[in-house]
Design a protein that fits this description.
Blueprint lengths: L2 E6 L9 E7 L5 E8 L5 E11 L5 E4 L4 E6 L1 E8 L3 H12 L5 E3 L4 E4 L2 H9 L3 E8 L16 E2 L5 E2 L1
Parallel strand pairs: 1-4, 2-6
Antiparallel strand pairs: 1-5, 3-4, 5-6, 7-9, 7-10, 8-9, 11-12
């Protein structure tokens, strides 16, 4: 089976023909090894060296050099807003305490649709309205539900 062992970030200069695209929600964009089928019917095996969060616009590189475009699927999210910048920061703090993926925009925060969190936000004076859009949560410790460890050697020097 055709394999994609590497990928290019959306801002990379890519040489190769884009032959298909895969439309994946946030959960399905955190992968290492899985059989995929493009929208156009191209079947291939994603076979990366490590589990990676694929972003909207990334390109999967097939063994033969052809490319498959990664597109973030539209999902139902909660758009959380507040009456002031300070109030929004307070809401972000409360959401962060729940250790859930969140996308922080300039004047709103987006999380997966959850009626319990929507009620919490409204109880704290914010708004939480369902919207349909791709989900691009912040990376880091809670990306995809997997921790990100930083290694330190015996001298305390930091290594990623």
């Amino acid at each position: 089976m055709l394999r994609a062992r590497t990928f290019l970030r959306a801002d990379a200069l890519a040489n190769g023909e884009i032959v298909d695209r895969v439309v994946l929600d946030h959960g399905d964009r955190h992968r290492r090894r899985i059989a995929m089928t493009g929208v156009g019917g191209l079947g291939f095996l994603l076979d990366l060296a490590a589990a990676t969060v694929l972003e909207d616009g990334d390109l999967l590189v097939l063994d033969d050099g052809r490319l498959v475009w990664v597109e973030a699927a539209t999902e139902t999210l909660l758009e959380i807003r507040a009456g002031s910048d300070h109030a929004l920061k307070r809401l972000i703090w409360h959401i962060g305490n729940r250790h859930i993926p969140a996308e922080i925009a300039g004047d709103a925060v987006y999380i997966a649709d959850d009626h319990v969190l929507a009620e919490m936000v409204r109880g704290l004076g914010g708004t939480a309205e369902p919207v349909e859009r791709p989900f691009r949560p912040e990376g880091g410790a809670y990306s995809g539900g997997h921790g990100h460890a930083h290694a330190h050697d015996e001298h305390g020097h930091h290594h990623d």
